[in-house]
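Slide 14.
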Amino acid sequence: MKYAFTPEQLADPQLGPAAKAVRSCVHCGICTATCPTYVVLGDERDSPRGRIVLMKDMLENGGAPSAEAVHHIDRCLSCLNCKTACPSSVNYQRLVDQARVHIQEHYRRPLGERLLRWTLAKVMTRPKLVRIGLLLAKIGAPIATILPGRLGAMAKMGLMARPQGPEPLHFPKPAVVKQRVAIMPGCVQGALAPQIDSAVGRVLARRGIELVALEGAGCCGSLPHHMGRDDEAKAWARKAIIAYEQGQYDGVLITATGCSSAMKDYAHLFAGDPVWEPRAAKFAAAARDFAELCTPLAVTPPPLESNKPLRVAYHPACSLQNSLKLNGVGEAMLEAAGFTLTPFLESHLCCGSAGTYSILQPELSGTLRERKLGNIAAAQPDVLVSGNIGCLQHLAAGEGLHQPILHLAELLDWAEGGPKPANLDLPRA
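Slide 15: predicted structure.
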């Protein structure tokens, strides 16, 4: 693709990789078939190929982007299906991330939009504020269920939350400790589903891994990062890095795949910073996802009334497939644990969650969710499983879901002798 980036732009540690992505694109269009927004909308401007042109022009020219460019770039999920499918290895992630930073710095959104984005960045990164939001959603439930658009999307997320117990601060210690891993508290998950980290602690303890709460850390920074608010993302990342440097650990874990992929990319977040880039690189090298630590364990799950194996539909989050490159790992763990996997169509397409996307783009996000749930329903599973809190909450709020939905660790924990998940309604004979 023809480009006109200046030598100074090409040398910039943040803009340079974005420009390289533009130069790598041959405009073949293979990516369009894998892009959820293009599959749904059929608009070239809502395909990776079309957005690359919009982002190239915006970044080359500098200054305020057009409203049209912002509209179509905002509708990108950052699922990175296009990156996985691309025969030219275009690093679309570098381009869209830099485009969002540019929009944040140079485009003045309407007041309501600015307030919403500010609220998401400040509230969703802090579990205490999320808990207050959950309480307000439940108090106003009769009204919340009929709210339209973005307010409705936020309210439904709050109403679907079923937190079970407090956020764990201590985890089981194995008789023989093979690894000692710090666990990040995260943000939204701690308020919406603290039981996930509890299950993760028990599952990993059976594999000789001791979890230690990483004091002083909080959100991984991915939520503000995907809105182009990189100063806030860096502030959260610095907190995590400093906290990790205070102890002696064999790795650092966070139990949402979207957050794991963000932590593994910390070095680029601080690219060009002589102090923080090397520290971020060490942290990123130590970052682990649950699917990396949890080796398959052959067990027999508790018997069902029907004496048939539980049929499980496994939804691999986009971050697991396209960023972490851990395809097939979750399925292997479920099969080893004695469950029957039920494949479904278009499992590679994004469910529409994508962090704050489900709130900022509720209509398109909802369309993708119903498409995903329709494909899952056709496979007739007994339970739906995923490894990312965003996917779990988003899918649970859909109208087409009639099965319980669990984090992978919750189901494995139950199969291996742990407590039965509170929302697991076993199929009847």
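Speaker note: The first strand starts at residue 179 and ends at 183.
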